[in-house]
Design goal:
The protein is α/β, with parallel strands linked by helices. It has a single domain, classed as Vaccinia Virus protein VP39 (Rossmann fold, 3-Layer(aba) Sandwich), CATH 3.40.50. The chain is 32% helix and 23% strand. Strands 3-2-1-4-5-7-6 form a 7-stranded mixed beta sheet. The longest helix is centred in the N-terminal third of the chain and has 27 residues, at 17-43. The structure holds S-adenosylmethionine. The site of S-adenosylmethionine has 22 residues, from loops.
Length: 218
């Protein structure tokens, strides 16, 4: 007998925090976008007509797609779906929404040109499994483009705060961790070429201000 795990295995939508996070990212969307715009414009430049996105949330990255694009959105949190559908409709994006985790996309191997994510690898259950899955589905030469928040350097006040706020932050933002060395994870994932730019934001969400944006080529 073959036992297959459900497509949202490892993700549990919370009845209260799910809707809270959907509302939070809708409200904060314009502000986040303002802070991230320069980095997103660089790594999301010239996206092709069809893009796969990990953890699309309420649609923060729809604006970076070309006109009449198709977005294959892997979003395991059903509380995000209504807003994501509405945003895609407003922007004229063809939305292929799949309630799945990024660890198990269900997409065929070597079938995708471009995968994107923003502020998602902080929340997935298994970063290495997600990166292996991204590599599996990308065609040779295809790109994974990402904007993510990462652990601060040891000994800095931001790193201290990331440790101190670990539990309430993770609880509020459904498993989000500010303590992941995602640049190291992407570099170790076996991509043919990786280009990563670290930078610092200046938002009141101090633990989230240490970030990276990059492109990894399969
Ligand atoms: C902080 S939100 C970011 C949403 C959006 N990308 C943005 O930039 O606003 C994190 C998103 O990742 C999704 N997520 C969490 N675990 C996931 C997983 N294993 N696979 C795919 N998405 C996941 C959450 O449901 C949520 O929509």
């Amino acid at each position: 007998m073959t036992v297959t795990s459900p497509p949202t295995s490892g993700f549990e939508a919370h009845a209260a925090r799910g809707p809270f996070n959907a509302a939070f990212f809708s409200l904060m969307g314009p502000n986040l976008e303002w802070n991230l715009r320069r980095h997103k414009r660089r790594v999301f430049a010239d996206l092709p007509q069809t893009v796969v996105e990990l953890g699309s949330g309420v649609g923060a990255n729809l604006r970076h797609l070309p006109p009449r694009a198709t977005l294959v959105a892997l979003e395991p949190n059903p509380h995000m779906h209504r807003r994501l559908r509405a945003a895609a409709e407003r922007r004229g994006v063809r939305l292929d929404l799949r309630e799945r985790v990024a660890e198990d996309t269900g997409l065929p191997g070597s079938s995708v040109d471009t995968v994107i994510s923003s502020l998602v690898l902080c929340s997935v259950a298994d970063v290495d499994a997600v990166l292996a899955e991204v590599r599996r589905i990308l065609r040779p030469g295809g790109t994974y483009r990402f904007v993510e928040h990462v652990v601060a350097p040891e000994g800095t006040p931001t790193r201290w705060l990331q440790r101190a706020l670990r539990r309430p932050w993770g609880w509020t933002f459904e498993g989000c961790s500010c303590e992941r060395d995602l640049a190291a994870a992407v570099r170790a994932a076996g991509f043919a070429h990786v280009d990563i730019e670290p930078y610092r934001l200046h938002t009141p969400f101090v633990t989230f201000n240490t970030q990276i944006a990059g492109i990894a080529r399969a």
